[in-house]
Amino acid sequence: MGGHVDQKLIKQLEETCSARGVRLTPQRKRVYELICDSNKASSAYELLDQLKVTEPQAKPPTVYRALDFLLEQGFIHRVESTNSFVSCCSFGEHKHYSHLLICDKCGNVVELQDDILIALLNSNVEKHGFQFSNHVIETHGTCQTCSSLEESNK
């Protein structure tokens, strides 16, 4: 077990699944814990390698099914540009906007929730009578930590 995983978050995951009447299998829960354990976005194969530590028999479909479930329930986001996964900060809302800041140097991902930006995006979507299912904005660049490392190395 990772140990860094916030147990309150896991309890919330269990309660949300139970309230929705969806099954949180041990694998789904473990994949979620592995995703939460990292500041970086994890690929399906990285997750599979980590899962094999505790479940040597785990296969790619196991991970893909768990990821599909977690995405569908709104517990994680897919980082489309890198085909990897991060946990969601506005826990388990089926439909919401998220803005991800992705550091191209260290791979850290930060999720922002900006109400003004969301209101603007919502009104633009509504103007077109569009029914959205998922909305992720990805911003690539260099995080503050990596930027200051670059500065100090000059």
TrEMBL record:
Keywords linked to the UniProt accession: Cytoplasm, DNA-binding, Iron, Metal-binding, Repressor, Transcription, Transcription regulation, Zinc
NCBIfam families, A to Z: PRK11639.1 (NF008646)
Organism ancestry: Bacteria, Pseudomonadati, Pseudomonadota, Gammaproteobacteria, Vibrionales
Gene3D superfamilies (UniProt xref): 3.30.1490.190, Winged helix-like DNA-binding domain superfamily/Winged helix DNA-binding domain
Cofactor(s) in the UniProt record: Zn(2+); Mn(2+); Fe(2+)
Name of protein: Ferric uptake regulation protein
Residues at which Zn(2+) binds: 103, 106, 143, 146
Cofactor note: Binds 1 zinc ion per subunit. Binds 1 Mn(2+) or Fe(2+) ion per subunit.
Recorded family membership: Belongs to the Fur family.
UniProt record, GO biological process: negative regulation of DNA-templated transcription; regulation of secondary metabolite biosynthetic process
Subunit structure: Homodimer.
Cellular compartment(s): Cytoplasm
PANTHER family xrefs: ZINC UPTAKE REGULATION PROTEIN
Pfam families: FUR (PF01475)
Record-level Gene Ontology MF annotations: DNA-binding transcription factor activity; transcription cis-regulatory region binding; zinc ion binding
A GO term from the CC aspect: cytosol
Binding site for Fe cation: 96, 135
Protein source organism: Vibrio chaetopteri
